[in-house]
Amino acid sequence: MYYWFFKFALFVPVLRSVCRPWIENPENIPSSGGAILASNHLAYVDTIVLPLMSRRRVTFPAKAELFHQKSFLGRVVGWFLRAIGQVPMDRTGGRASEESLNETAQVLRDGHLLGIYPEGTRSPDGRLYKGRTGAARLALHHGVPVIPVGTVGTTRVKKLFGVIPYLDRPGVRIGRPLDFSAYADQVEDRQVLRWVTDEIMAAIQDLTGQEYVDAYSSSVKAGNFTPEQLRARVQDRPGNAGRPPAITTAEP
What is the pTM for the complete model shown? Predict the structure, then answer.
């Protein structure tokens, strides 16, 4: 209930009138059934812009720490995330992480839309970085399509009346659904997961036109690469258009 209240009572009228967001090819989002919306990640507001422009409800996993902050503002944020139905993602490992993954997967089992950023974190410089295989694993395990999403303009901030910051024409481009069901029996095959992930990232790149760097953005943020090393990892396309892995079938 809170999700739709906040969307149509607050975000839709305010953001649409001030920021004028736009969407291309919304018909590529299926009208029903579970699916993964896999998007690039430029700014915090990406998680607001995509659900705002989607006719269907979109659930994003959010860092578990955001649900358990002790400050007043932190408690407000935690309450808001719970109220709109976002799910906590524990990244510490062990049983807590496994339980949070199960909660995330339940969104797909219930036939809803799950939003995922395959890069795992925001891009440090606006480029597209190597995708992690979690979205691929979920898609193969639950037999759902992956909808590539290209978010643009969410870092283009201007000042209203010269004082109040606001976004200027952010938008989302929705790509055609990607069907990887032929590899459903190979969900534990690392080669398959990497190929599927690279295909997802390539579809996102087609929508955004971002330069692709074959490195994890979290490693870049940690300072593990020099600028020269990153330039050497720039590729025309994720996976270099590698051939798809062979399809195997389970023995009867």
Answer: 0.89
